[in-house]
Sequence to fold (178 residues):
Amino acid sequence: FTPQEFTTISLNETRKGWLAPNQKHVYDFTMEKNGFVIIDQMKDNSNLDTYLYLNNESGAQLQADDDGGGNLNSRIIRELQAGKYKIIAGTYPNSSGQYKLTVKRIEVQALNFGKLLKDSVQAGDMKMYIIDMKSPGTVNILAKREDSSNFAPYMDLKSETGAFIEKDNNPGSNPSAT
Fold:
């Protein structure tokens, strides 16, 4: 058992810690203004199997994630209202090790039907695009690189409530995602 070093986390901040089996570290987080965030709990050179929780200020669970970040890492992507929250870095019962916890704001932009949008993203960053569907239907979304970099686009399509719909992960150096 290793005591928790910090009890707060802010946007664009990384906290590191070590968790024993069944241990949890609780961080107070204040969202200054409404917006989308991505909360990542990643194992840090260990065999840790992370489990991440987001609670409101009074402790009611808003969301939890096991492996949403891939490779035993946890990820919560969510719109938050201005206010106070608790982010809890946890582990599965038979798992222990080091972790990194980060909270970042996600840039959000509207995507309009039939319009070309040229944008850029830095390595390790993420952007969110909102599509306003007036009625059910089929949509084709194409993201492709337009230079000679090694950038390989990756997309997740989720509902307004965050429910997973579809994903495209073209591994390697494929220059597009649909």
User: Anything to note?
Assistant: The mean pLDDT is 86. The radius of gyration is 18 Å. The first strand starts at residue 13 and ends at 19.
